[in-house]
Hints:
The structure holds 2 protein chains of 2 kinds. Chain A is an alpha/beta fold. Chain A has 2 domains: about 5-260, Peroxisomal Thiolase, Chain A, domain 1, CATH 3.40.47; about 260-420, Peroxisomal Thiolase, Chain A, domain 1 (3-Layer(aba) Sandwich). Chain A has helices spanning about 20-30, 40, 55-65, 65-70, 75-90, 115-125, 135-140, 145-155, 170-180, 200-205, 245-250, 280-295, 315-325, 340-345, 350-365, 380, and strands at about 5-15, 15-20, 35, 50, 105-110, 160, 185-195, 235-245, 260-265, 305, 335, 365, 395, 400-405, 410-420. In chain A, helix 5 (about 75-90) runs parallel beside helix 8 (about 145-155) and helix 9 packs across helix 15. Chain A starts with a strand and ends with a strand. By secondary structure, chain B is mainly α. Chain B has a single domain (about 5-80), classed as Orthogonal Bundle (Non-ribosomal Peptide Synthetase Peptidyl Carrier Protein, Chain A), CATH 1.10.1200. The termini of chain B are close together. The chains are: A alpha/beta, B mainly alpha. The interface of A and B includes residues 130, 133 and 135 of A. Chain A: Keywords: Acyltransferase, Cytoplasm, Transferase. Chain A: Its main location: cytoplasm.
Amino acid sequence: MSNRVVITGLGVVAPNAIGKTNFLHALKNKTNGIKFHQDLAEKGFSCQVAGTPEVNNNLLNQYFTALEQKGLLASGLIYGGIAGQEAWFDAGLKINKSTDYDAGIIFGTGILGVEKLKEAFHLIDNHRVRRLGSTSVLQTMASGVSAFLGGKLGCGNWVTSNSSACTTGTEAFLMAYNHLKLNRAKRMLVGSCSDSGAYVWGGFEALRILPYQYNQHPEEASRPMSKNAQGFVPSSGAGALVLETLDSALERQAPIYAEVCGGAINSGGQRHGGSMTAPNSKAVQQCILQSLNNAQVDAAEIDTINGHLTGTIMDAVEINNWRSALNLSGEKFPLINSLKSHIGHALAAAGSVELVASVLQIKHQFVFGNRNLQPIHPDILNQISKDTIPDQTQSTAIKYLIKASFGFGDVNASTVLKQFEK
Amino acid sequence: MTKEDIIQKLKRIVEPYVNHTENFNNLTETSDFIKDLEINSANLVDVILDIEDEFNIRIENDDMEQMLNVKKSVEVIQQKLK
Lengths: 422, 82
């Protein structure tokens, strides 16, 4: 018999809150994490609003030694290092004195340490490569966060990093889930992060898919499912979760937040309407269906959906994909929300931060309200009832939650989570 | 600059990289950076860069290869300061 897998630890560094407890509070209060960024204005961005976590020195000192802070410019490593350690300690785990061969890490990112890369380019071009010192590699290698956390915590199982654009976090989660199902580890720290700043967000500005209409009203800029959605708001941060076999969690008497029932990962192959930037809807629907099949859960049992829903014209297409895959519409459609209405689109970090939010919703039996929803897009109201799109946070019974992430390259990942029962 | 001045400055430079505090507190001229002070070998390049900044000198690869303890480091620094 294969293992049951549960979630035993959470960590989060988000633009509107840092730490599990603050984040829960922010979710319930729909706290805005989007601000005006002077730096973007000075660099000539048309979109001058974004989400950046506010990490203070106390927090930095709590999770990084003075030596680790020396020359530390990779914001993704800061976010991931904090979120990863928070999740680990939240699960009741300690820093291992000797290597724990049953514990692994999968921590993904899109690109790590762009500020550190900028420093490196500058030094190298000025014939000063030797001035890079020892920190350049760790801060700019894609596996920098998993390598940092692996050493900090003493993990001796699979320690790696994945990358699949905006599905990265959800993909890391499912990679670890499968690893645990196969009995190849007892516990896996998973997560993803994304650097902050103009160098990460510039490419999206150039694609003209960021909103430029809300520079005077940053708190209104991120509008998933709204008729006035003008593009996704660039953001950053990190989320982390500890996944564990049920046997290991019970043996340790660890806190159990929720159970992972299953999931699926696929790609639309950039065919049939799919492209580098647009989804092949058939593949999206298949991914959702496969995750339900894998979890052995009926669509009608789903209580709530945590969507990808970025705040672009594609939101109505995503709703159509959910509606078609679940074969539920109108009033029968589950409650749906998007964390991006609170904190924007944290790119590679989105999946993991949104999974932390999803798990908190299950644990505390509520659905957070969508910000900036009104007026809801008519192409969405054509498909599902407005009552299924809460704009206020509400208490509700959640047994099953489904969460999906979709990314550049026409890649998809979907997972089904369940309220924990012994 | 006297030898003692250089050792004092060197002490301040290596301190953040030290993993064996007791040996650091009992630092002698023969203290080995890696074996005794347990400085991570990757951090030796940072120690060298900090020495360059502090003394306004340039340390080449062959100099660096010798600078594994306090005595040798002081010698190289003194030589560069001449």
